[in-house]
Design brief:
The structure holds 2 protein chains of 2 kinds. By secondary structure, chain A is mainly β. Helix content of chain A is 0%, strand content 39%. Chain A is globular and about 30 Å long. By secondary structure, chain B is an alpha+beta fold. In chain B, 34% of the residues lie in helices and 25% in strands. Chain B contains 9 helices and 13 strands. The chains are: A mainly beta, B alpha+beta. At the A-B interface, loops of A face loops of B.
Chain lengths: 56, 286
């Protein structure tokens, strides 16, 4: 499915089987969003920015 | 039915692969986002309710989140992959080196210092070029290849502005390697797969997070032996063991307790997620 970027209204592709916590990014502005669900509806919120202790 | 909880704060390819693998093995797999959870640690039982499982696979991308959540879960008797102690040691390069040395696992020469002046002496002793790493942190961040004393002074000055943890100077010899390192995956008592990680062009670090490329490596006795020994040294159930090829043989330089394998699985043809899940289910039934 396609969702409008909250920042630039670009078209963000979200996989149909997306789960909460999945990260999608806007092809236009590059902003990263995290998928979450509210009342069964898929929504996007700003993803956490990379922190110093992240990664393997 | 075994219930396997996968805790995460950011869904990556690995977490989805683990979920699919668990379901194919007939487990009840629950992916739980723990980012915004809050936990009463005085209750004496697993909470919140959603974290109740027979085994937990800890997959938070944030190290300290992983570490403390693991401590909480273990305190109420839940087996976690990986255990608290293993996560603690793997999250700290200095503690990792100490554990490896104690277990007789070969490592690069490493000198630790606590001040700028001490670090300059450490670099002199190791010899330029040398590598300066923070004891915590990952994806290759703030890992510097120090070519000479001038560079050292600039880098050390910058470190003095950071958190005190960055003033633990971990100085390591630079191993002249064929622009690659080795990542070996250990699950339980078994070394299941290995890849060469080639550095991206213009990048001396071979982390795949920095664009490095994964190529299958055939398992051999030396790699199997050092990797399993390294995993045991820290008490990890599932771990990525990073090795360097040197004239003295393989040297282990880092262990990863929440290992990424999205590139390694297709490169090696080994279903790493399935191997981890099989192990988790076995652990749950113990
Ligand atoms: Zn946008």
């Amino acid at each position: 499915m396609k969702v409008k970027c909250p920042d630039c209204e670009g078209e963000i592709k979200v996989p149909d089987d997306a789960i909460a916590g999945e990260i999608v990014s806007c092809p236009d502005c590059g902003q990263e969003y995290e998928v979450y669900f509210e009342d069964g509806k898929l929504k996007l919120k700003q993803a956490e920015t990379v922190k110093e202790d992240w990664g393997e | 039915m075994v219930r396997v909880i996968i805790t995460y704060d950011r869904i990556r390819v690995e977490e989805k692969a683990l979920q699919r693998a668990g379901e194919s093995l007939g487990a009840d797999v629950r992916l739980i986002d723990v980012k915004d959870s809050f936990i009463d640690i005085t209750k004496g039982e697993v909470n919140p309710e959603v974290l109740k499982g027979d085994v937990v696979i800890q997959r938070c991308v944030g190290h300290f989140r992983s570490l403390y959540l693991t401590a909480i879960l273990e305190s109420v008797g839940v087996p976690v992959i990986n255990p608290f102690y293993a996560t603690l040691i793997c999250g700290d390069k200095l503690l990792t080196t100490l554990a490896l040395r104690r277990a007789g696992v070969p490592t690069p020469k490493t000198i630790v210092a606590f001040t700028r002046d001490g670090a300059l002496k450490a670099l002199e002793e190791v010899g330029y070029p040398a590598i300066l790493k923070p004891v915590v942190g990952s994806w290759g961040r703030l890992v510097s290849l120090i070519k000479d004393v001038e560079t050292a002074k600039v880098v050390l000055e910058h470190r003095e502005l950071l958190h005190p943890l960055y003033q633990i100077f971990y100085v390591q010899e630079f191993i002249k390697k064929p622009d690659r390192d080795i990542r070996c995956f250990v699950v339980g008592e078994e070394a299941i797969a290995a890849i060469y990680r080639y550095a991206a062009p213009g990048e001396w670090r071979s982390n795949t997070a920095l664009g490095g490329r994964a190529v299958k490596m055939e398992m051999n006795d030396e790699l199997r032996e050092v990797s399993i020994k390294a995993a045991k040294a820290v008490g990890a159930h599932v771990v990525g063991v990073d090795c360097l090829e040197s004239e003295r043989g393989l040297l282990v330089h880092e262990l990863n307790s929440v290992t990424e394998f999205r590139n390694a699985a297709p490169a090696t043809g080994v279903d790493i997620a399935k191997k981890i899940m099989e192990y988790a289910i076995k652990l749950a039934k113990k």
